[in-house]
Amino acid sequence: MSPRFRLRPGRRDTLGLIGATILLLAAGCALLAPWIAPHDPTAVSLLARMKPPMWIDGGSLAHPLGTDNLGRDILSRVIWGSRISLAVGVAAVIVGASIGSTIGIVAGYFGGWIDNILSVVINAQLSFPFILLAIFLLATFGGGFWPVVFVLALGAWVNYARVVRGMVMSVKNQDYVHAAISVGVPTARILRTTVLPNTLSPIVVVASFSMAQAILAEAALSFLGVGVDGSNPSWGVMLNDGRAYLQTAWWLTAMPGLAIALTVLGGNLCGDWLQDRFNPRIGN
Amino acid sequence: MSASILDIEDLHVTFRQGGRSIHAVRGVSLRLQPGEVVGVVGESGSGKSVAMMSVARLLDEKQAGIRADRLDLDGQPVLGLRKRQLEALRGPTVSYIFQDPLSSLNPVLTVGRQVTEGLRRHRGLDRAEARTVAIDLLRQVGIPSPELRVNQHPHEASGGMRQRMMIAMALALRPKLLIADEPTTALDVTVQADIIRLVQGIQREVGMAMIWVTHDLALLARVARRVVVMYGGRIVEDAPSSVLYSAPAHPYTRGLLDSTSRFDVPFRQQTPIPGTPPDPAQRIEACAFAPRCPRATDLCRSRIPPLEDRGQDRRAACFHPLTGGA
Amino acid sequence: MLRFLLRRLFMAVIVLLVVSFGTFIIGHLTGDPVELMAPENATREAKDELRSYLGLDRPLLVQYFSFIGNALRGDLGFSFVQQTAVSDLILERLPATLQLAATGFVLSLLIAVPLGIFIALNRNTVWDFLATSVAMIGQSAPNFWIGLMLIALFAVQLRLLPVSGYGGISYLILPAITIALQSAARLTRLMRASMLEVLNADYVRTARAKGLRQKTVLWVHSFRNAMIPVVTMAGLELAELIGGAFITETIFAWPGVGRLAVNAVYQRDFPLLQGVVLFAATAFVLINFLVDLLYVVIDPRVKLS
Which residue from B minimizes the CA distance to A8? Predict the structure, then answer.
């Protein structure tokens, strides 16, 4: 009975709070973009091209993070960009979680050959270079918001399926489930009332991490030119645009990248924290 | 009276966890003569394991704060020792047998290596000598075909065999004091008796001092001359087994005896103690057992009862003892 | 032990079959290669002739098995865009990828293992806080962005290293660091967590109770156990790298398999893409199998399962 105390639980909570704050701020930016962005993100000003951030010589308070090659305000573009990046992330999480959890529940509850097929598919997908599959599909069938979302969900569903399957398998063997089965409660009802609630916390944990992953992957895809396009650019698109000016104006690349890093950090911190709270044993 | 092998005076152990501190051991005093066999009994959370772990300073001292007026092991002040001196004591002077032999044995090292490590470290044996000794030790603890076992890994043996390996390991250096921390709790009931008999036999043969730590009073009745009862981080009763079992002084000891399976008592009369053990994070300026005690009075709820001599070589910490007192 | 390895091998084969079938099907969904190959003014008869010459008029399953059969003999098809055998293209690019992967991987281990152990032993100190924070941020920042920032700093501002390309050691440094940083961020955190768990393990307490030297407790009793999860993770990282560090190779114009694949996407060179995917998946499965073999060596418990 050696006492095992967790290391400073207080610190973990603080980090989780920081993560949640970051995510809330990002969500706030996305929702309130028209009101908080200092400039029109598409307003071109040829007189104010390539202005550096305010803390560097030549920068000004008018454009705190500088301007791009067309004189557009980078801060405003980063704020507006959060809309696309977060929307992709949230949508990918919802689609991926729905598909993955459903498959996980079915495989975990019914077991047998369904389960065997699932584990083969999971192993196959894990050994498949996802980013390559994604660019392949998007290059073949065309990019855009929903294609990107579905491709990202295609990459993420496995994680949900794996975790949910494990959870279902352990719940399935609980006495109260056996009892319910033996008195003839319909399967659908057992799944809904006992199995589903138990899978919620691991799903939330995976969702937090995979939201972060989705934002990263979206940026990578946009960076490779097969992501979400449109007049309102995502952070990944901004990064890709800025790359051409890396030699002269690094901030075009640095700022959107920083935005991505911060948001993903928020998602990861939240994920760590939730994992700690719900179940220290769910691996990722 | 010869010099004590173990002399503890007012031992306190506190774990710091975030802003909270957990006071696991709250003033334990205990003295052991060479060759003496003592049982320490208590519920989990009573501080018995933590107190015994502090004897060789095995607790993680980044988390555990240990202080005592005296903590002498074979005449050496354990708390004042440097790392090297401490290492020299662990093994030859004090050895441990832990509760769960599976988690207490290293999964990636062979049994032979783990049994002989101490010998090689402290006695400077070479590999071949160590192997011979290891085979000998394994045979002594009743492990069949020890020549094969030395090259195996712990997971290849059964639970009982693993505990025998632990015992071989603990006895390799013929320690002056052996501390067995719940050595049979993790084992099948059928092998528990074998293990107890084995340890007992070796103890008699070697003549070392020994502490059995357990929550099982019935077990101690068979092995220990003296029993120390712990509750809420303190010793509440300390008496020769003959005295303690026939007439316990502390109501908690009484409760423990009543809740222990005994063949001489009808099942109906075996009653668990009502209530729950105290929260180790809380400071208590009263008898920790008072909330669960049928004899508790206002006095018990306002002061900590001191551990006092009650005659018949007994100490008890109770204002209203069942025998031998007010 | 044999059973464990056989089961793993069986799984690896199944996985490869599924992956190859997936690649094959997607390859077929992407359009008729004949339309891409034949000249624009080719007659219908000429196209049909080409189709049957290529064997594309056979049933899908037959085509798949011949695809697999060819792949097993090292024939991954023909890139019409580059007019070269796919296997030759991959083999030509492989040395560059291996060079980058090996350098990045070794660098990553050299950072992650000692650092992870160090901060586990000094947990809750300033060093721990700094290293864990940096690792956390490193894990969160997009890898290609880190690469670009390294270019901006070391190549553009400081002019210490070339921006991109292939050549001497100086060209290798930035892409290798880019790869290593990402992988090291993950591995350091894992190494720390794993080491902390092992240091709290009962068998480490047993080792201390035997009076072993601190050095022995750390390196003999803790280190090997702590490495078990790290080896798994490191194997995955290496496997991914050998399949091609797609984006890093693209940023640094590194002539490896990853860049080959990305270019194949842009040029709609499906046979090449199919080949690279199959190659990457095989590399992945193979490395993981090797990791399983290594497992048998470091974790004797595996022999029984």
Answer: B18
Q: How far apart are CA A84 and CA A236, in angstroms?
A: 10
CB < 8 Å to B277, chain A? none
Give, rounded to a whole angstrom, the gap between the first and last alpha carbons of chain C. 8
Instruction: Answer yes or no: is A155 within a domain.
Output: yes
Distance, in Å, from the CA atom of B284 to the CA atom of B232, rounded to the nearest integer, reads 9
Question: Is A27 part of any domain?
Answer: yes
Q: Average the pLDDT over A107-117 and give the result.
A: 85
Is A208 within the bounds of a domain?
yes
**Euclidean distance between CA atoms B42 and B37, whole angstroms:** 17
User: Residue B40's beta-bridge partner residues?
Assistant: B213, B228
Q: pLDDT tens digits, residue range C145-180? A: 999 999 989 988 888 888 888 888 889 999 999 999
- The rounded mean pLDDT for chain C is 86
Distance of alpha carbon A236 from alpha carbon A225, whole angstroms: 9
**What mean pLDDT is predicted for residues B203-220?**
89
Interchain CB contact of B15 with C (< 8 Å) = no
Domain range holding A115?
3-41+63-278
Write the DSSP string, C46-109. HHHHHHHHHTTTS-HHHHHHHHHHHHHTT---EETTTTEEHHHHHHHHHHHHHHHHHHHHHHHH
Residue tagged 């079992």 (tokens): B245
The CATH code of the domain that includes A249 is 1.10.3720.10
B116 vs B172: CA distance, rounded Å: 7
Residues in chain C with CB shorter than 8 Å from the CB of A89 are none
Number of domains in chain A: 1
Please, what are the domains in chain C?
2-72 (no CATH), 87-298 (1.10.3720.10)
Report CB contact under 8 Å: C299, B58.
no
Give the pLDDT confidence of B84-94 residue by residue, as tens digits.
Answer: 999 999 999 99
Instruction: Tell me whether residue A50 is in a domain.
Output: no
Residues in contact with B60: Cβ distance below 8 Å, sequence separation at least 6, in sequence order = C200
CB contact under 8 Å between C304 and B91, yes or no, is: no
**Residues on chain C touching B58 (C-beta within 8 angstroms):** 205, 208-209
> What is the pLDDT confidence band of residue B315, given thresholds at 50, 70 and 90?
very high
Coil, strand or helix at C267 = coil
Question: Tokens for C288?
Answer: 């993981």
CA distances from A266 to A7, A25, A89 (A): 21, 10, 13
Average pLDDT, chain A: 82
Minimum-distance CB partner of A127 among C137, C139, C285: C285
- Cβ of C206 and B121 within 8 Å? no
pTM of the predicted model, to two decimals?
0.85
What is the distance between the alpha carbons of residues A66 and A77, in angstroms, rounded to a whole number? 11
User: pLDDT by residue (tens digit) across C228-283?
Assistant: 889 988 988 888 888 768 889 988 999 999 899 888 888 878 788 888 888 888 88
- B129 interfaces chain C, CB cutoff of 8 Å: no
CA atoms of B31 and B75, how far apart (whole Å): 12
Residues of B in contact with A1 (CB under 8 A): 44-45, 49, 99, 182
Identify which of C257, C86, A241 has the alpha carbon closest to the alpha carbon of residue C249: C257
Distance CA(A30)–CA(B316), nearest Å, equals 69
Partner-chain contact C246 A132, CB within 8 Å: yes
Instruction: Tell me what pLDDT residue C88 has.
Output: 92
Of the candidates A4, A124, A246, the beta carbon closest to that of C152 is on A246
Q: B13-57 pLDDT, tens per residue?
A: 999 876 678 899 999 999 999 999 999 998 888 899 999 999 999
Against chain C, the chains showing at least 3 CB pairs within 8 Å are: A, B
Q: A70-93: per-residue pLDDT in tens? A: 878 888 888 988 888 899 999 999
**Structure ipTM:** 0.89
Each residue of A46-67: pLDDT tens digit?
A: 777 778 887 877 777 778 888 8
